[in-house]
Amino acid sequence: MRKPYVIGIDIGGQSTKAGVVDARGNILVQTTFDSRDIDTLQGYLDTLTETLNKLINSAQVGGKDNVGGIGIGAPNGNYYKGTIEDAPNLKWAKDAAGNTRVVYLKEDVEKAMGLPVVVTNDANAAAQGEMIYGAAKGMKNFIEITLGTGVGSGIVIDGKVVYGHDGFAGELGHTTSIRRTGRQCNCGKIGCLETYASAIGLARTARELLEIDPQRPSLLRSLTADDITSKDVAEAAAKGDELSVEVFAFTGRLLGEAFADFVAFSAPEAIVLFGGLAQAGDLIFEPTIRAMEDNLLSIWKGKVKVIPSQLPGSEAAILGSAALAWEL
Amino acid sequence: MRKPYVIGIDIGGQSTKAGVVDARGNILVQTTFDSRDIDTLQGYLDTLTETLNKLINSAQVGGKDNVGGIGIGAPNGNYYKGTIEDAPNLKWAKDAAGNTRVVYLKEDVEKAMGLPVVVTNDANAAAQGEMIYGAAKGMKNFIEITLGTGVGSGIVIDGKVVYGHDGFAGELGHTTSIRRTGRQCNCGKIGCLETYASAIGLARTARELLEIDPQRPSLLRSLTADDITSKDVAEAAAKGDELSVEVFAFTGRLLGEAFADFVAFSAPEAIVLFGGLAQAGDLIFEPTIRAMEDNLLSIWKGKVKVIPSQLPGSEAAILGSAALAWEL
Question: Which among A146, A163, B66, B139 is least buried, having the fewest CB atoms inside 10 angstroms?
Answer without folding.
Answer: B66
